[in-house]
Amino acid sequence: MPTPDARITKEDLESRFQSLQDDLQGRASDKKQSIMAAAALLGGVVVLVAYMLGRRGGRKRRSVVEIRR
User: Fold this and answer.
1) Cα separation of 30 and 24, whole Å?
2) What integer best gives the mean pLDDT of the chain?
């Protein structure tokens, strides 16, 4: 940590920004697995809901055909 009279150098700034960036990338990589799992689960739920709504709509519009001889 620089003293109050010392000037902030380019290397000081670069080292601080690098440590901040490393910290953020570490956190993002930790949460990546849980985000991917949640996205997969959400996609599956969307597909299931679309399938169920499609079946329901097909049953409503299905016509009954009587054939007489």
Assistant:
1) 10
2) 84
Residue 29: give the domain boundaries: 9-60
pTM reported for the whole predicted model: 0.48
Please check whether residue 2 is in contact with residue 12, taking contact to mean a CB–CB distance below 8 angstroms: yes
pLDDT tens digits for 34-50? Answer: 889 999 999 999 999 99
Among all chains, which residue has been given the structure tokens 């985000």? 35
Distance between CA atoms of 60 and 56, rounded to whole angstroms?
Answer: 6
Q: How far apart are CA 63 and CA 65, in angstroms?
A: 6
16 part of a folded domain: yes
Q: How far is CA 9 from CA 30, 33, 43, 47, in A?
A: 32, 38, 49, 55
Q: Half-sphere exposure of 21 toward its Cβ, with a 13 Å CA cutoff?
A: 6
